[in-house]
Amino acid sequence: MSDQNNILSELNDRSREVFRRVVEGYLSTGDPVGSRTLTRAMSEKLSAATIRNVMQDLEYLGLLDSPHVSAGRIPTQMGLRLFVDGVMEVNHLGDEDRAALDATMGANSGDVGSLLDRVSNALSGMTQGASLVLAPKHEAPIRHIEFVSLAPDRALVVLVFADGQVENRVFTPPIGQTPSSMREAANFLNAMAEGRTLSELRGHIQREIAKHRSEIDSLATALIDSGLAAWENKGESYERLIVRGRANLLGSEDDLDRIRSLFDDLERKRDIAEFLDLAEDGEGVRIFIGSENKLFSLSGSSLVVSPYMNADRKIIGAVGVIGPTRLNYGRIVPIVDYTAQLVGRMISGQGKG
């Protein structure tokens, strides 16, 4: 950030305006911006030759690039970063956008999955990008746990929650488990599971196993350990990553292979909690431009992401928009920010307040 401040301080008012207008023109049209276009837009009357000289200086600083000989300029990734951090003015959320987002909260019956589906669809439609919504962990108290043998090398651990939801994980059990060892492991878990959430249960079970290891069969202990590991896998800590709006990224100017690569990354990404990690360095919206976005192999994209929180101000999920680097950041930032706040309030049972 200090390097960016140094570059900004090097720019006089004329250079700053040329830079701002080139970036805004590019974000608006996706096309290089030429000097003749700027002669009509600048607040100061300047010749095309003077503007070209300023553009060359900005190119030397690494802020602009010329994609074709004698063409206009486009911002580099560094230029976009500088614009977003130091020049861009974030718009207020428009009444139409606010109403569209508020409408996704209507008819909410406590079904978080349906709510997040509606939010994801609304985000992709409003921003013309792809929306990403990371659903929160399931934190209802546990009613019952059961192990089911599927094959000698595969077993299922089933969790029934107090709110009626059922989830399961397939895992590799210890070799030689028996029906009695599976019943023993399930009985041990159920004796302490009821009324506890999964996150509350984990530490408690580990302490109990250490205390009572000699009292339960070693095979049952191993079954509990391996079954719990299936739930403790970091990538399985969150129910799902909801993605909408693939078609929005397939404009004629886009590289189809790169877009396909992006969605391949999304669909095979097991550690989707990494998406949340991107948002955890602060409560507000974060913007990742091009190769700054380490979650995806695709470099020609930007991600605008914000976490949402529960009533205890704990980050439990995230919402975001991904698209080409020429996203309308000034409009999308307040949309993502408001959406995250809205989802957090609804999940916390506070309504739109």
UniProtKB/TrEMBL annotation:
Gene Ontology MF, one: DNA binding
Keyword annotations of the record: Repressor, Stress response, Transcription, Transcription regulation
One of the GO biological process terms: negative regulation of DNA-templated transcription
Record domain Heat-inducible transcription repressor HrcA C-terminal: where: 115-333
Gene3D superfamilies noted in UniProt: 3.30.450.40, Heat-inducible transcription repressor hrca homolog, domain 3 (3.30.390.60), Winged helix-like DNA-binding domain superfamily/Winged helix DNA-binding domain (1.10.10.10)
Protein family membership: Belongs to the HrcA family.
Record function comment: Negative regulator of class I heat shock genes (grpE-dnaK-dnaJ and groELS operons). Prevents heat-shock induction of these operons.
Name the UniProt record assigns to this protein: Heat-inducible transcription repressor HrcA
